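Quick question: what would this complex look like in 3D?
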Amino acid sequence: MEAVENDQSALENPPDPAPTPLQQPLSKSAQKKLLKQQRFEAKKAEKKALTKQQKRQDLERRRKEWEETLASVTEEERSKLIESRRSLRKERMEKRSEERGRKIERLTGARDWGQKIVIDLDFAHLMTPTEIHSLVQQIMYCYAVNGRCSSPCHLWLTGCEGEMGSQLQRLPGFDKWIIEKEDRSYIEALEDQKESLVYLTADAETVLEELDPKKIYIVGGLVDRNRWKGITMKKAKEQGIQTAKLPIGSYLKMSSSQVLTVNQVIEILLKFMETKDWKVSFFQVIPQRKRPEADSEGYQKVEGEEKEEKDDQLDSKKKCIEVPS
Ligand SMILES: C[S@@+](CC[C@H](N)C(=O)[O-])C[C@H]1O[C@@H](n2cnc3c(N)ncnc32)[C@H](O)[C@@H]1O
């Protein structure tokens, strides 16, 4: 998926602008960080261009091979080959359209019976355009993951206004997404269900043990490298709504903070809905490669290399180790 071709660290940590004469010069460590970031970006762009070129070459090679094959056979064999290719294509397209149909059914069904999860998009004013872009990519990823789930959640986007709204609108096919899009904030849109609202925040005291289908879980739509520390906790407190944190500490020892990215939180919730097992959910979503110690239970092989790569592109370089039981 093209959308995941973003490294979360890059997304969440755009290079600082060059200092103007009025600004303080960058400290040595900030300069080092900036240089590292720029090198990373350059490498990423190079890799992307290479992959694109490779794809083009592969396509061209296959086209040539096909033409050569056709040229080397009799008229009758050629017709057979063309016909067989046509029917293969048709089959593939039918399969895809069936899959799409099933996905639409699942997502439509989730509107009636799915676990409600809100992404609170009221923080655009606190993010840079790059961070907003990164958040939009994360939302796109969340939507795709939700669509693949056998029991998807009922996803809400609240506060889809301004820059946030226009960046979302630019996503291909966004208009057709089976998702609740709400310009108002969740507190207005879900006014009559205020008692059911639970803001998920790493700063909460309450630990989320189970998912209650009657509750509506809110995830803060923020990409901020925790620059706005405690902002969602403060917001929930002021609004008088419940808060809870994921039970990360009971299963993993993170080498950095327990603040996860939006897509990681949503994916963990989806995995938990499917498995009813926090440990499995954390281990499958928080990239194994980022853990300093290999876990002994083989979770690393669950979704293979491809998953590992996607995580690499979206996670925020969390490192974790399993808490010994
Ligand atoms: C990148 S974090 C934003 C951090 C932000 N400074 C804050 O105060 O929430 C994105 C969102 O994911 C959710 N989140 C991240 N880590 C979490 C955790 N350990 N437990 C519960 N929710 C978490 C929160 O809803 C959070 O707002």
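Answer marked as accepted. The pocket of S-adenosylmethionine is lined by residues 200-202, 219-220, 222, 224, 226, 228-232, 245-246, 248, 258-262, 265 (CB under 6 Å).
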